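Ticket #4471: structure export looks truncated?
Reporter: QA, pipeline team
Priority: medium

Steps to reproduce: submit the single chain below to the structure queue and open the exported record.
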Amino acid sequence: MRVMGLDVGSKTVGVAISDALGWTAQGIETIQINEETGDFGIERIKELVTEYAVTEFVVGYPKNMNNTVGPRGEASENYKKMLEDSFHLPVKLWDERLTTMAAERMLIEADVSRKKRKKVIDKMAAVMILQGYLDSKN
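Actual output as written to the record:
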């Protein structure tokens, strides 16, 4: 049983995968997307689902601090529906408030340059989303 964690942004989707036992999350890659042209990276996700035998998805759900859902949260809801329609696997939305900020802070503390941080921030956020979900199940 492997779970795929996704941090959906407006330009990229960070991807993380759990180990076979569902205990730990590892960052895999960042997929470039284009909302305007309708390219949401589903083809690449299909390849990863097959490669890693994914059985479930967790999508970051960026709620506002007052618990309301804004435009990015609605985009995550739409992405969830797209995944359900494409893969017919369970898809959970996971509250991801502050995960990107926490990932950025972690990378800054590790003295990662701004240029390198930009390349891995979404993947790191996906790891934090997925790890939070896995921890809640175990």
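Status: closed, not a bug. The export was complete when the record was re-opened. Leaving a note from the reviewer for reference: The chain is about 45% helix and 25% strand.
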